[in-house]
Structure formats: C-alpha cells, structure tokens
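Data card: per-record layout.
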Amino acid sequence: MDPVEPLGPLESRVMAALWATGTGTAREVHAALGEEWAYTTIMTTLDRLHKKDLLLREKEGLAWRYRPTLDRDAFERARVDALASRLLGERKDLGLAALVDAADAATLDRLAELIEARRRP
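The structure for this 121-residue chain is written out next.
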C-alpha cells in the first residue's frame, strides 16, 4: 500500500464503516452504507482494500469478514509520515522551506514546541 495514495470516496466510506464497527462482511458494510451502491460494488471495494493491505480478512461460512489493519489514527499517521518523507526527499531544505512558508503563526509555534521536545534527551 502506498499510504500517500488517497482513498477514493467509496473506499473512504467503506473504511469509515469498518473503523466504526471493527469488522464486517460485505453484506454488513453494504447495509451500513445504504443502497447507494450495489452489493457487488461493495464486495469489489473490500477486495481492493484487502489487496492494498488496508484490510485483513478471514473466512466466515461462505463470506469473508474484514477488519482494518490499522485504526484510523494509525492510518492517518502513516499517510502523513509518508507524505512528509516525500516532501523532504533528497532536497530537505526545499521541503522544509515550503512547509514553513505554508504555516501560520500558531502552526509555527507548535512546530517549535515539537522540535524542542524532540531535541530533549
């Protein structure tokens, strides 16, 4: 999985449903999302999320029961970490300058706090 790759709208809704319930079959997720999408579309989306390593699955009768590999906070943290790595890349100075230029005063203050906390032994 490339954690920087954004999830599509349906993938995001499926993940939100599973984060809310912890686990679910395609039928359960389909029921939670309503009739906006076909059941087979939900099945395909769950399979795609499994192939992206965002969901684990185990057989339950004839169906698969899915559960997220990461909780929502860990997933968002992985996305931010990957994005930061890409932003900094080989030219860390340019990435840092862009980050600082885009930040408001409160964000710069928070950044200074984080830097100070990281420097403490």
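Known properties of this structure: The chain has a mean pLDDT of 90. The helical segments are 9-21, 26-33, 39-51, 72-88, 92-102, 105-119.

See the next section for split statistics.
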